[in-house]
Amino acid sequence: MSQVLGKPQPQDEDDAEEEEEEDELVGLADYGDGPDSSDADPDSGTEEGVLDFSDPFSTEVKPRILLMGLRRSGKSSIQKVVFHKMSPNETLFLESTNKICREDVSNSSFVNFQIWDFPGQIDFFDPTFDYEMIFRGTGALIFVIDSQNSGIEKAFLFDVVSKIYIATDSTPVDMQTYELCCDMIDVVIDISCIYGLKEDGAGTPYDKESTAIIKLNNTTVLYLKEVTKFLALVCFVREESFERKGLIDYNFHCFRKAIHEVFEVRMKVVKSRKVQNRLQKKKRATPNGTPRVLL
Ligand SMILES: Nc1nc2c(ncn2[C@@H]2O[C@H](COP(=O)(O)OP(=O)(O)OP(=O)(O)O)[C@@H](O)[C@H]2O)c(=O)[nH]1
């Protein structure tokens, strides 16, 4: 996470750790400082250069996304368009990446990971690289939305900053539907930025519960509801069902509660991991090499 200007600097290692811990916990509930890029030189042998993805004493264990592919195959473009709001046309002017770049993405409560961009010219199969590749599913988060009974035709749980959908129901996703949701998020987020998160925009049905409604046609309504400050549920609802909105709102209420519980568990896990790491470090050695705990 990048350093915050004007913030008093920690006095010692423990203070620094505590501050980092606080930052991470805050990061789960608030925006961080946005993406933080750094170049990692594979030859330098520094922390950034060594491709050690498994530091056992690391206090911050972030999932890592490795962008790998042929030269000029679009790795940097994906990163810029998804995380920096660069328009696809602008990627035409991107220069070739000539070293490994690492970026911390921590500007939302849910999306918190590192991206490593491996430039096309790097021979990833060079035996001097010590790496391990793990492909992990993101894990579906949509608990059961009672779509049949509530009249919801399609539901997405979005990270509103990156507009990545974290989860969706089991019906197929088509690009048009997805793009419509993204446009709606853009509009709602713009309005909420202008008028303050909990205020109505002029003529826009953005009420105090952070809800937005757009009537698409005679049969479907697009319904957005804020789940947390960073997550929004966007649903396509049949209009006749929307008239009985109580059931949808009840479903939403249960869903929101479950999501909040997930975050509470996550906060507890992060906190206990930090405590464990600190204990482990203290046990290791004093500055003169004497073990702190005499056996
Ligand atoms: N037509 C088309 N062009 C693309 C697409 N994605 C990226 N490009 C273009 O391809 C060129 C290379 O894109 P980069 O994102 O720099 O590729 P890279 O894989 O990071 O390249 P290296 O850094 O050399 O490894 C740019 O001019 C992009 O505008 C795509 O989906 N379609």
Question: Could you describe the 3D structure shown?
Answer:
The protein contains six helices and nine strands, in the order αββαββαββαβββαα. It has 295 residues and is α+β, with helices and mostly antiparallel strands. β3 and β4 form a beta hairpin. The protein is 32% helix and 18% strand. The radius of gyration is 23 Å and the shape is flat. α1 runs antiparallel to α6. Residues 1-13, 15-58, 127-142 and 193-208 have low confidence and may be disordered. The strands form two sheets. A five-stranded antiparallel β-sheet has the order 6-5-9-8-7. Guanosine-5'-triphosphate (GTP) binds at residues 69, 71-77, 91-92, 94, 96-97, 119-120.
Class computed from helices, strands and strand pairing: alpha+beta
- Tell me the β content: 15-25%
Into which percent range does the helicity of residues fall?
A: 25-40%
The geometry reads as flat
- Summarize model confidence as the mean pLDDT: 65
Enumerate the strands of the largest sheet in spatial order, edge to edge or round the barrel: 6-5-9-8-7
Named once each, the bound ligands are: guanosine-5'-triphosphate
**DSSP summary: helix tally:** 6
By DSSP, the count of extended strands is: 9
Describe the sheet with the most strands. 5 strands, antiparallel
